Amino acid sequence: MLSVLRQYHGDSLYLAAFAVSLVLLLLRDKKNKAGGSRIGIKAAVAALLALILVYNGIAYRIAGKLTDTTTYYRFFWLLPVLLLIAYQLTEAFTSKQKTRILLGGISFILCLAVGANFFIRRETVNRPLNIYGLAPDTLVVADEIMADWGEDRKDLPVAAFDMYLEYQVRTYEPRICWGISRQAYLYQAEFGYDGVHYPLQQEVIAAVNEGICKDAGKLKRCLRKLGIHYLVIQTAFDMDDYLAQASVAPIAQSERYTIYKVKQKGNRK
Question: Which residues contact 123 (CB under 8 A, 6 or more apart)?
Answer without folding.
Answer: none
